[in-house]
Design goal:
It is built from five helices and two strands. By secondary structure, it is mainly alpha-helical. It has one domain. A two-stranded parallel ribbon has the order 1-2. The protein is globular and about 35 Å long. The N and C termini lie far apart (30 Å). It comes from Dyadobacter soli.
Amino acid sequence: MLEYVFEKLSYPDRRAYFKDGESALAYMNAPYAEPFLVLSDIDHSYTDGADLNTQLSTDIEIRRTGIPYLYLTNRANHELIIDAYDKMA
């Protein structure tokens, strides 16, 4: 769905998609990674979106970039959402 929107808007920048938080974290720590935005599902396998956000925010080099981190989810579980935002505090 997101790729469709980016294509319709003729968005030129590279996009990267990951199946889990561990893969996303490995990418973020790579020297070639230059993300401008992180869109993450709260409910990832292995490392969930809230844990990924915590790991990224504790990495001083990544935190200094000021990359916005937004949660997207299709889950209607209110507790997951509250838990994700509690971990940010």
